Amino acid sequence: MTTPADPPKDHEGVALPDPQHPDPSPSDPRRDSLIEYPSKFPIKVMGARQDGFVHAVTQVAEQFDPTFDASTVELRESGKGNYLGVTITVTATSREQLDNLYRALTSHPMVKVVL
Q: Whole-angstrom Cα distance, residue 110 to residue 70?
């Protein structure tokens, strides 16, 4: 009885793609991302309507995207005007960049929700 050979692995022990089966395996981290990098990526941030909220959100965006253009910011008030939705569009260059941006936004004291 013959057994299939183990697939070749990289220096970290992760299986390399099989050229005869180019789709990544279910455990391949590339399968987790549907985003192609670089790309424009909108992020909606919700918070209480207060002075400095929009500025705080744009400052965080600028930390993670040096090409961020504040003129693209979109604002939307809640029905009663107590909350403000701020949509920022960043140039996403990696999953790590987006993860770090989300962490910074969600940990900001003025931010209630990040979508």
A: 18
3-state SS assignment for residue 90: strand
- CA 93, CA 110: separation in Å to the nearest integer? 26
Question: What is the DSSP-derived secondary structure letter of residue 14?
Answer: P
User: What global pTM score does this model have?
Assistant: 0.71
The confidence score (pLDDT) of residue 2 equals 47
Residues 98/106, Cβ–Cβ less than 8 Å: no
Which residues contact residue 108 at a Cβ distance below 8 angstroms, ignoring those fewer than 6 apart? 56, 57, 60
Count the helix, strand and coil residues of the chain and give each as a percent rounded to the nearest 5.
25, 30, 45
Beta carbons of 47 and 83 less than 8 angstroms apart: yes
> Which pair of tokens denotes residue 52?
């400095």
- Tell me what pLDDT residue 92 has: 97
* Backbone angles phi and psi of 103, in degrees to 5: -60, -45
Q: Chunk the chain into consecutive blocks of 10 residues (it has 115) and report each block's average pLDDT, rounded to whole numbers.
A: 57 60 53 82 97 98 97 96 97 97 98 97
